[in-house]
Design goal:
The protein is an alpha+beta fold. The protein has 2 helices and 4 strands, in the order E-H-E-E-H-E. It has helices spanning 28-32, 60-64, and strands spanning 6-10, 38-39, 48-49, 70-74. The longest helix has 5 residues, at 28-32.
């Protein structure tokens, strides 16, 4: 990973998709990722970042996560 690269990091100790909103188990951060790099296999499952290299660190997922379980990290 190149120095200065930004990417999303999920804190799985804080992440609880069942508490994310009106659609039980659907992660709002996954829905907010305009690059389709956050994925959720099933409702209730925690999200996963498909690729740190492809993540641009835009922060859309950070802003949408109601539990503040996602942060942007500099690589």
């Amino acid at each position: 990973m190149e120095l200065g690269t930004k990417y999303a990091v999920i804190n799985y100790q804080v992440c609880e998709p069942d508490k994310c909103g009106p659609h039980q188990g659907i992660c709002k951060a996954v829905q907010a990722c305009s690059h389709d790099l956050l994925i959720q296999e099933e409702p209730g499952d925690p999200p996963m970042l498909y690729s740190t290299r492809m993540c641009v660190g835009c922060g859309d997922c950070v802003r949408e996560c109601p539990l503040k379980a996602i942060n942007i990290q500099n690589g």
